UniProtKB/TrEMBL annotation:
Keywords: DNA-binding. PROSITE patterns: HTH_MERR_1, HTH_MERR_2. This is MerR family transcriptional regulator. It holds the Pfam family MerR_1. SUPFAM superfamilies: Putative DNA-binding domain. Residues 1-68 form the HTH merR-type domain. SMART domains: HTH_MERR (SM00422).
């Protein structure tokens, strides 16, 4: 299938499909006229790429994970479980860090609002 058809079938822009190819995430053969021809399983590959991007994985990691899919779905082989668990732990750490920052910022804001309400110079 050509790039336009793949874009229509997947809802992904032609430009983004070219980017996926440039990053080594998607492959296509070239016709004699230079047009890209994608294999029949390209829509499944695009769905996999989109799933991994939604998980905020960098393209270099996605490139490494692409051969590790099972069947036509988005399930991965068990050999990558440790990598995925490590990534989830990193995200948990970042979430905890951001939550602490949000709490501290909220406390600063609340204290500032209370202070400004009590200060006649700031309220006039």
């Amino acid at each position: 299938m050509r790039i336009g058809e793949l874009a229509r079938r997947t809802g992904v822009s032609v430009r983004l499909l070219r980017y996926y190819e440039q990053q080594g995430l998607l492959s296509a053969e070239r016709t004699g006229g230079g047009h890209r021809e994608y294999p029949a399983d390209a829509p499944a590959a695009v769905a996999r790429i989109r799933a991994l991007l939604a998980a905020r994985l960098p393209t270099r990691t996605i490139r490494d994970l692409m051969p590790c899919f099972v069947g036509d779905g988005t399930e991965l082989q068990s050999c990558v479980f440790d990598h995925l668990k490590t990534r989830m732990a990193e995200l948990d750490d970042r979430i905890a860090e951001l939550s602490g920052s949000r709490t501290a910022l909220g406390e600063l804001f609340d204290a500032s609002v209370l202070r400004s309400a009590d200060d006649p110079v700031l309220t006039s």
